[in-house]
Design brief:
Length: about 450
């Protein structure tokens, strides 16, 4: 089954290349190709890592045929573009003062390099009017994954994951953390069009989207959900309520959420097990010094703060984290204090250990400016706002900006939604779906 799945991925990439070649003499068709490839990448994101990586290379190649150099170079002067570039540049410079082997230094630059795609996405989707196509493709793909996840929960043999591989029931590909991130983002983003449709009297469309959102919630409640999702979902819903609903409605929804949440926890063994694991893991770590999920995070964070204090300005250099943990490991390997890792499971500490205060300032400045970009009305602004908010909060427990799946969710979400917001503000020429241009 896995071989057939990879073969289908390769065929999809081959189709992209064929479409690109057929439109090399038509400027508007080339623009359409760039949009369609982005649509395909978004559809592949919930399912594939290699497909996304290859697809983005193809997308950049297709974009190169439409890129106007001077306007693009001017766009790089924007802080929303300059700061991601600065963070990657710092990662490259950090190899010069790191004590890690050169292979580890070069490898550690890789997770940050996806941020270099952000300026290209801002630039292209400021010109194109098809950005929403990409988000619809991602939503449709996640909806299909939700249906497949439900089927796999009843018949685990259909999963592409190897038997016994961690991740939980209901996981067809990837892992439960990535799947939960997708479902949480889709659920919260759908709240905006649902409310808008209800206010416009479009009840059927609103009910359809409500059913999709409910499907994501039910999947997380009764099949599988990550603890990070349990923390970030209420925060994101609270932001939606404060931004788009009246205070009386917020009070009613808050009470309803507590009642429904308590009811869901009562009838869902999955939610009970996930929440109980918080306290159980902490108790096992504190009393028995065993390496549980929460216990290891606390151990990693405590040591990372020590590493940061040793080199607070420029850090220990790119790729230095694993070596530092190896030197700090104590006791038998089965105990928490002896565990070694190259990622402290916190984005801030991941940056701080390697690049010190300079890296942390650049990271938070980038998050702040990207967050500020989406202070406005409209669905694109709402999508971008939720993508940034989710990444910031989930990065308290993981290095999600540098992780492959969650990092690409951030880059694609912020880059495409940001381009759409910039286009709306500038009122410049955009390319319509028909291939014609209008002011």
């Amino acid at each position: 089954m896995g071989v057939d799945y990879q073969r289908r991925e390769i065929n999809s990439i081959g189709s992209m290349l064929s479409v690109m070649a057929s439109a090399r003499h038509d400027p508007l068709a080339r623009m359409l190709n760039v949009d369609l490839i982005a649509v395909l990448v978004a559809a592949l994101l919930p399912w594939s890592t290699s497909g996304v990586a290859i697809g983005m290379v193809v997308w950049l190649a297709a974009l190169a045929a439409t890129l106007e150099l001077r306007p693009f170079l001017r766009s790089l002067q924007r802080p929303i573009c300059a700061l991601p570039i600065a963070l990657v540049a710092l990662a490259a410079l950090g190899t010069l003062w790191s004590d890690a082997p050169w292979g580890a230094r070069v490898h550690a630059i890789g997770p940050a390099t996806k941020l270099l795609v952000l300026p290209f996405l801002f630039y292209h989707f400021e010109r194109s009017a098809r950005g929403m196509w990409v988000f619809v493709a991602f939503l449709a793909s996640c909806t299909l994954l939700m249906a497949v996840s439900t089927i796999v929960a009843f018949d685990p043999s259909l999963s592409l994951k190897r038997p016994g591989e961690p991740g939980g029931n209901g996981i067809f590909v990837k892992n439960y953390i990535a799947q939960s991130q997708e479902f949480v983002l889709c659920t919260v983003v759908l709240a905006f069009p649902i409310i808008t449709l209800l206010r416009d009297g479009k009840i059927r469309q609103a009910l359809l989207l409500t059913a999709v959102a409910a499907g994501f919630i039910l999947n997380m409640a009764f099949i599988v959900v990550s603890r990070t999702a349990l923390v970030t979902l209420p925060v994101m819903l609270a932001v939606f309520a404060m931004a788009h609903l009246r205070w009386r409605t917020n009070v009613l929804l808050f009470v309803s959420a507590i009642v429904l949440g308590a009811l869901a926890w009562t009838v869902s063994p999955q939610l009970q097990a996930t929440t109980d694991k918080f306290t159980r893991d902490y108790r096992i770590y504190k009393e028995l010094n065993q390496p549980t999920s929460i216990g290891l995070r606390l151990e990693f964070w405590e040591k990372s703060l020590r590493f940061f204090a040793e080199a607070p300005v420029i850090g220990h250099g790119t790729g230095s984290t694993r070596g530092l943990f190896e030197a700090a490991a104590t006791g038998p390997k089965v105990l928490a204090q002896a565990q070694v890792i190259g990622n402290p499971h916190n984005q801030t500490l991941n940056v701080a250990v390697q690049w010190g205060t300079i890296g942390v300032v650049i990271l938070y400045a980038m998050w702040f400016l990207h967050f500020s970009l989406f202070r406005g009305e409209g669905l694109a602004a709402w999508i971008g706002l939720m993508v940034v908010l989710q990444n910031v909060f989930s990065s308290l427990f993981n290095s999600h900006l540098f992780d492959f799946h969650e990092g690409w969710m951030y880059v694609l979400g912020v880059g495409i939604a940001g381009g759409m917001v910039l286009r709306a503000r500038s009122g410049g020429e955009v390319v319509e779906s028909s291939g014609t241009a209008r002011p």
